[in-house]
Design a protein that fits this description.
- By secondary structure, this protein is α+β, with helices and mostly antiparallel strands.
- Helices cover 23% and strands 29% of the residues.
- Strands 1, 2, 3, 4, 5, 6, 7 and 8 form an eight-stranded mixed beta sheet that branches.
- α3 crosses α4.
- The chain starts with a strand and ends in a 14-residue tail after the last helix.
Length: 164
């Protein structure tokens, strides 16, 4: 398995050990995985987040870095929150937002990790459309997740239509 790390400049606001780990497709996952490392180093309610992509794209490391920066400058980012990417997730995608979700593909063993009596939560950042984001805020996370389950939701397809 090959791993490489993407270093991103952030004007000194992130912990010096912060980085984004990029994991290419392998025998366990047929997709690219992008994951923060060190986002949890200096904040209360420590979290790390990851997202998946069918294709390699360095812009995904930038999205994760921007979210880490947002959290580390005093803004709350937590489970079931949505974030605005400020641009499409991938070129020409309708998904310009992200939903911070439980790591359903990995199970409960990834959700919490203990380091020196501190629980770090590991969450999945799911790219979503503006319509899905609006629906989540109007009707709640459970209703949106029901749509994901019932509509054969393809979280890897950057060109998918909204499920709502």
């Amino acid at each position: 398995m090959i791993f490489y790390v993407c270093f991103v400049l952030t004007m000194g606001y992130l912990h010096p050990d912060f980085t984004v780990l990029v994991i290419p497709p392998n025998d366990k996952r047929e997709m690219w995985t992008y994951a923060t490392i060190g986002m949890s180093n200096t904040v209360s309610d420590p979290i790390e987040i990851h997202l998946f992509s069918e294709k390699e794209n360095d812009d995904l490391a930038e999205i994760l870095t921007a979210i880490a920066y947002y959290k580390l400058t005093g803004n709350n980012v937590d489970l079931n929150d949505t974030v605005n990417f400020g641009r499409p997730w991938l070129p020409n995608s309708k998904c310009e937002y992200g939903l911070i979700s439980l790591p359903y593909l990995d199970g409960l063993e990834l959700e919490k990790f203990w380091v020196d009596n501190t629980a770090i939560s590991f969450y999945w950042l799911i790219p979503i459309t503006k319509q899905e984001r609006d629906y989540r805020w109007k009707y709640g996370i459970e209703k949106l997740e029901e749509y994901f389950d019932n509509e054969n939701f393809n979280y890897l397809n950057p060109f998918r239509r909204s499920v709502v």
